[in-house]
Amino acid sequence: MEFSDAKQKFIQSWGALGSQWGINKTMAQIHAFLMISPESVSMEEIMDELKISRGNASMNLRALIDWGIVYKDYKQGERREYFYAEKDLDEMAIKISRERTKREIKPALKVLKEVSSIPANKTTKEKHFKQQTTSLYKFVAKADNALEKITEYNDNWLGKLLKKLIT
User: Fold this and answer.
1) Which residue in 34, 37, 41, 108 has its CB near the most CB atoms, within 10 A?
2) Would you state the CATH architecture of domain 3-85?
3) pTM of the predicted model, to two decimals?
């Protein structure tokens, strides 16, 4: 397989995976392209490589910056902006986990807490509903807590040591 074919296959595959971690295909493709680029890349280069419009590129770059996995770079003497992706895969995974928690888990917890707090002293269906939603709330809260602990470990020396021992 030639380099250009391998590069395109990677970008396309990463784009398809994007929907599994909460972003759209184009956003994931831009991220993939920036991840494998050895230097920062201009928006025009991104548009040319992925055959996308300026508006699409701009909107998705802004979102990737908001996620904390893409950064702006300014080159002296250049008017255009350049972009590069987080290269540290551990750091990228932590940032994605934190963002997904904020966007997906926290809102789900809020809803589960609300719906499980209804009084359930009337029918069997109400009691069952309360029991199931309360159990689900507790489970998701534990998972959220565990995820928070894992991402916090990366920020301290003990966590880094434990992570090295595990991997």
Assistant:
1) 34
2) Orthogonal Bundle (1.10)
3) 0.73
